[in-house]
Write a structure and sequence with these properties.
Alkaline Phosphatase, subunit A; two-stranded antiparallel sheet; disordered N terminus
Length: about 475
């Protein structure tokens, strides 16, 4: 197993760098800089990992679990009747439905059936998922405190509803480093032109960690990374000479100030230079056979689509990128849900399933953890007027569904359960911190030991709680 730098050692080096280097010349700084320039790190995980990398298919907006995964026939039977007060309890509602005169239950318009040896329930909206249910662990008992999009997404990505903490990918870059010197440890792909809900760059930011740990976004088009290509008239040799001069100037500044961000700046210039070759190679799909596009669907030919990003995620995984984050917006169906969710499912169903199949046939699923899910679920009652052919669903953090596959996850199981109204968790609740603790565990990290001291406190991704979901581990 590749040796990587201990977070504790790196933290000590960073926090005491100025004092230590002044006392010991620039020896350690030179050594650390050489590691940064090579793009690798040097220490060990807390225990043997089951996964080497993650592909996180984040479905921004809150997919409606009752219309996709969590079959609730009682909602159809009681369609139009009010949600019983004892089921709601004291749960708060958003301002969008709190003032409704009634909360009419809305049965799904979509048929459900069981599939695979596991007998997993799936909506008719997800025909391609039928082929992967025996490779997937469905978690139907997710819950969170956040009831609005920004804090809920921030909670999933950083472990806190308050902006400013490092993202999951940044924590993994900090704790595990990179296995590919020519590509970032953390890459972000966003479906182009999707949804009304905004996504902020801080969701893949490094927070108070070193800036070298932040995610690098690859965009659709000729320039996947902004300002990476050389301008017209600038040759590779001229760019190399320019970077050498900038490096010397930065090194001179570092020798005077011992600021670790200067080291990171040098390393990022060097990474950008290497990415001028590595990024075009990974984003050029011309070497993919026709069978690949048949698997992922015709959308995979169009850069920036969810399907194209799933295919690109597989190519990045092949090159040992540590954390690949996909964002797909548009699941926020407060109204016109039957039409809206049908479109979202069509855009994501085939490619999500294809990614699992593709990784599996290439022998990559075993050590690649794939995650599918959003920031919360949707209400079992209709937001707004319920009609025979239309309904909407408000935000619902109390219970929702996500799934995981590969990378040490037990396949073909369903974990957790909700009540017959699909409103409350009744079995094996999974909090966001439990979820993130399990993710870190699969990569060989003890979530209580991956910490960073900032402003007098030791921070971690799981804050002050989090339990590993041992029952879903293979």
């Amino acid at each position: 197993m590749k040796q990587i730098m201990s977070p504790t050692i790196e933290q000590c080096v960073s926090s005491n760098r100025r004092t230590f280097l002044k006392a010991n010349a620039a020896g350690l700084g030179t050594m650390a800089l050489s590691q940064l320039l090579s793009g690798t790190a040097s220490a060990s995980t807390h225990f043997q990992p089951k996964a080497k990398r993650i592909i996180y298919l984040f479905q921004s907006g809150g997919p409606a679990q009752q219309d996709l995964f969590d079959h609730k026939p009682l909602l159809r039977e009681m369609n139009g009747q009010d949600l019983p007060p004892e089921i709601r309890g004291e749960q708060r509602l958003t301002g969008m439905s709190a003032n409704q005169s009634s909360l009419p239950l809305a049965g799904s318009h979509f048929k459900f059936s069981r599939h695979g040896q596991s007998g997993a329930w799936l909506s008719e909206l997800l025909p391609y998922h039928r082929d992967i249910v025996d490779d997937v662990c469905f978690i139907k008992s997710m819950h969170t405190e956040a009831i609005n999009h920004d804090p809920a997404i921030t909670m999933f990505q950083t472990g806190s509803q308050i902006a400013g903490r490092p993202s999951l990918g940044a924590w993994l870059s900090y704790g595990l480093g990179s296995e590919n010197a020519d590509l970032p440890a953390f890459v972000v792909l966003v479906t182009a032109g999707q949804g009304d809900q905004p996504l902020y760059a801080r969701l893949w930011g490094s927070g108070f960690l070193d800036s070298k740990h932040q995610g690098v976004r690859l965009r659709a088009g000729e320039d996947p990374v902004l300002y990476l290509s050389n301008p017209n008239g600038v040759s590779a040799s001229r760019r190399r000479a320019q970077l050498d001069t900038i490096r010397d100037l930065n090194q001179h500044q570092f020798n005077k100030e011992f600021d670790p961000e200067i080291e990171s700046r040098i390393a990022q210039y060097e990474m950008a230079f290497r990415m001028q070759t590595s990024v075009p190679s990974v984003t050029d799909l011309s070497d993919e056979p026709e069978s690949t596009f048949k698997l992922y669907g015709d959308d995979a030919r169009q850069p920036g689509t969810f399907a194209a990003n799933c295919l690109l995620a597989r190519r990045l995984a092949e090159r040992n990128v540590r954390f690949i984050q996909l964002y797909h917006q548009g699941w926020d169906q407060h109204s016109n849900l039957p039409r809206g969710i049908r479109g979202q499912a069509k855009e994501t169903d085939q490619a999500s399933a294809a990614l699992i199949k593709d990784l599996k046939q290439r022998g990559l699923l075993e050590d690649t953890l794939v995650i599918w899910g959003g920031e919360f679920g949707r209400t079992s009652y209709s937001q707004g007027v319920l009609t025979n052919d239309n309904y909407g669903r408000d935000h619902h953090p109390r219970c929702f569904t996500t799934w995981m596959a590969g990378g040490g996850i037990k396949p073909g199981i369903t974990y957790g359960a909700t009540d017959e109204f699909g409103y409350n968790v009744v079995e094996n609740g999974v909090h966001v911190h439990d979820f993130n603790a399990t993710i870190l565990h699969l990569l060989g990290i003890d979530h209580e030991r991956l910490t960073y001291k900032y402003q007098g406190r030791r921070f971690r991704l799981t804050d002050v709680e989090g339990h590993i979901l041992h029952d879903i581990l293979a």
